[in-house]
Amino acid sequence: MTKVREVMTHGVAVIDEGDTVATAARLMRDHGIGDVVVTAHEKATGILTDRDVTIRAVAEGLDPASTSVGDVATHDLVTVEADADLSDAEALMRRHDIRRLPVVEDGFAVGFLTLGDLAIAEKPASVLGEISAAPDDF
Q1: FRET partner for 87 with CA separation of 20 to 30 A, picked from 22, 49, 95, 104?
Q2: For 63-83, what is each residue's pLDDT tens digit?
Q3: CA of 99: how far to CAs of 4, 18, 33, 42, 111, in Å?
Q4: Rg of the chain over CA atoms, in angstroms?
């Protein structure tokens, strides 16, 4: 069986829940990513996605320069172990309607499993697989 670690995107950007949404957006831009793990006292407490920034901050008229990450992040953090079977991770993503699933090892975030990762692994010739495998233009 395929393990999550075999197809996940390695590496995680983290941001403190007290940092601003604008800081998080710049971090995402600079690293060409769409999500960051939110921490408090170095412990993962949630996730902030580019969609959270758009829907929960900007669309609501909040000032990204003064709104804290903790105010708009998703705090019901669902994770998967790196050694979990990929099929179990997929079921978890479906059950929780998650597009980006943080991957952990020994309690520390080590990467993400994304819909794009799944497409590359399972249907590389699909439109999503091809787009996800293409290099970023950042």
Answers
A1: 49
A2: 999 999 999 999 988 999 999
A3: 15, 24, 13, 24, 14
A4: 15
